[in-house]
Amino acid sequence: MLLSEIVETSRAVTATSSRTAKVEHLAATLRRAAAEDPKRIDVVASYLSGTLPQRRTGVSWRSLGELPPPAEEATLTVADVDASAEELAGTSGSGSGATRRRIVAELFSRATAVEQAWLRAAFVGEARQGAADGVMLQAIAKAGDVPDSAVRRAVMLAGRTGPVAEAALTGGADALGTIELEVGRPLRPMLAASAPDVPAALATMPGEVALETKLDGIRLQAHVDEGAVSLFTRTLEDVTDRLPEVVDVLRRLPVRQAVLDGEVIALDETGRPLPFQVTGARTASSADPERLRAEVPLTPYFFDLLHLDGEDLVDHPLSERWERLAEVTSEGHVAPRLTTADVEQAQRFFDDVVARGHEGVVVKDPQLPYAAGRRGPGWIKVKPRHTLDLVVLAVEWGSGRRKGWLSNIHLGARDAETGGLVMLGKTFKGMTDEMLRWQTERFRELAVGDPEAGWVVELEPEQVVEIAFDGVQRSTRYPGGMALRFARVIRYRDDKPVSEIDTVQTVRALAGW
DNA sequence: TTCCGACAGTGGGGTCGCAAT
DNA sequence: ATTGCGACCCCACTATCGGAA
Predict the structure, then answer these.
(1) For a surface tag, which of A205, A207, A464, A473 has the fewest beta carbons within 10 Å of its beta carbon?
(2) Is the distance between the Cβ of A56 and the closest atom of strand B smaller than 7 Å?
(3) Which residue has the least CA–C1' distance to nucleotide B11?
């Protein structure tokens, strides 16, 4: 199949805002791929959702700065592109920058202008065609003439869409039905929606709920198969070799085969959680694992059991999965949990968890199955929220659907000692289109110099904004040595002068430094 | 006809390891 | 030895479409 067919489909998908029309376009091209190039349906499916099947290629927008002149005619095939991407993935991180540049140059010189644009978006991961995983899933169902639910289930159990597309189009519902949970192969983790507080979370569920401690660490999916252990992150990256102490814990479990879901976290000597940055640095490092293990040991906590000794449990209710988990896991590797229908009791549990230094709680409906890969209503996370009144120091022009609007604001606090203003980070979150319109006008007025002159627009520090955030983290990027985690706008305030905004001393005290 | 669940998009800070400087 | 870059970790929030009520 020619790449130009993918590019043309992408153009059509981008051009319409109707999801059903997007699905039609994608399904038609998938069907053509099945007829012409059945061995590469998985690659075509990946391309149609604007991504490369290769996890990493070492190529990003910086390395695509200057491209060779485009080809006149569309001759590139999907197979050609896949071969190049495969070669790039194989040489990524192996000290062959010149080789990679040559592969990129050759590939792009064979592409037409529109194909170059598509390739760039695919490598950079910025397809922006209004169709990613979810819409693609519907297209696969349509093209294979199988139910959405069958595709969704297969994708969740297989972890990836490519092989599922291939099965759906070549073997239909029968082939999809053979895709099951496989011990050793990661599946998509179930995700949680969020609620502002405990009563709101409980209000979404009938009767008794389960409250679990939400640990501020790294999500971990663990597979045990006759003594062989594999560990995967939320995006299904294999991190087995990095976490030997976690492997040891799993080897000791009294199971032949199991798939567990949980979190790993670094604790201090008293069992209190260390900052997320400590756990994050440990799991990101592939240096000598035995040394790291001695320096920053990690503790796994499990909260779900998806398979046990030949039996899949994903469709069983949480209450039963939890019971089976408790039978095979020692007390030290299950975080505190409470089942209740009483709001006050739930609130006390939340307060206690937070007081002990944890991130919050996840409220779960005990009757529901494991909905892999979805941010379903079955799990609701609740975290404490802090707010500050800060000043807008500068603002950046937006991109994509925010093009032409002043979007991302730079946040400053007052330094009570020097009287100056100290930047604590940026945010673009929480803004409605109405707010974007308003702030684009407002910040044009406050601009120091020509607001159209550059990407970042410096402002007279006059506009006060109320900001919500999850916590304070150490920063080397900002002069105050700290930054706000997950900052988002609540509202602009005109009732408060800059002389009365919050101070860096307040923020430092909040962080406990 | 209205409501609401699912989805895509728009980016935030921190960290590591490797290549280039 | 230092810096730049790519990829990963954590993630909040709004707008929109289209099926459910």
Answers:
(1) A207
(2) no
(3) A428
